[in-house]
Amino acid sequence: MVTQRDPIGDHFDARASHYAQGHSWVTDSVSLEPILSLLAHCASGVAVEIGAGSGAVASAIAESPVRLRSYLGVDASPSMVRRHVAHAPAVVGDAHHLPVASGRVDVVICRQSFHYLRSPDVALAEVSRVLGPGGRLLIAQIVPFQERLDEAWWATGMSIRQPLRRHLWTGARLCDAVTGAGFYVESVADLRRRTSLNQWMDRYPLGPAARGALVRHFAMTPPPVKALRAFDESGGDVAYDLRWIFITTRASRTSRRPS
Predict the structure, then answer these.
(1) What average pLDDT does the segment 23-38 reach?
(2) Which residues contact 216 (CB under 8 A, 6 or more apart)?
(3) For a surface tag, which of 85, 86, 151, 200 has the fewest beta carbons within 10 Å of its beta carbon?
(4) What is the pLDDT of residues 31-73, one digit of tens each?
């Protein structure tokens, strides 16, 4: 149960009616595939999704050969929950107080929502509580590439475009967070996907000052970052690469970083 007003919930309430429309990461089948691949190995299992939005993951499951015993979407936004795909249940809830009995879940999915958590340690403890023996947590997150110059460039862009983010995760920090909470990292996989500056700016309202700041930030991108992200500056837009990371973990009493 949500016990306090959360600005993140308000933000997504305002975006709910058009969240999954247009070209974006939300419904990108390629970045959904690693989730389906994990679920395929948990046939007849129980899955919980934290930050389920309007149901992109649930829709992908329904359109795939994956068959689960049950799926539950959890989201802080009542408007998102109301718009969640009708064939899969979803509830208004808080990742820090999951509305699920202990030890009943086979897979917890956290796709592009880990950066909004108030207290990642508390949320991870909740995930550990609801997972049954052999249960897995999959974090799918867009992060910077593993170069300090790119990390700094990405953090500045995020602070302009998405100031409500509570955390600016890198792949290494995510691994530290989950292992520090007692999870064992089974695998870490990367995926490049193409996007553009205009697509990012147009996904939801951005004030003129912030829009100008973001355009200037991209114009001043250091050449090594442009090369790393395969910048293509043409037609008044900038196409570039994003980096997805997929971290699959098991709950464990022993913490260690993957080699």
Answers:
(1) 90
(2) none
(3) 86
(4) 999 999 999 987 669 999 999 998 999 999 999 999 899 999 9
pLDDT tens string 82-91: 989 988 999 9
From first CA to last CA, the distance across the chain in angstroms is 38
Looking at residue 184, its pLDDT comes to 94
Domain ranges across the chain: 7-196+241-251
In terms of pTM, does the model score above 0.85?
yes
Let me know if domain 7-196+241-251 sits in CATH 3.40.50.150.
Answer: yes
Six token digits for residue 163: 């100031």
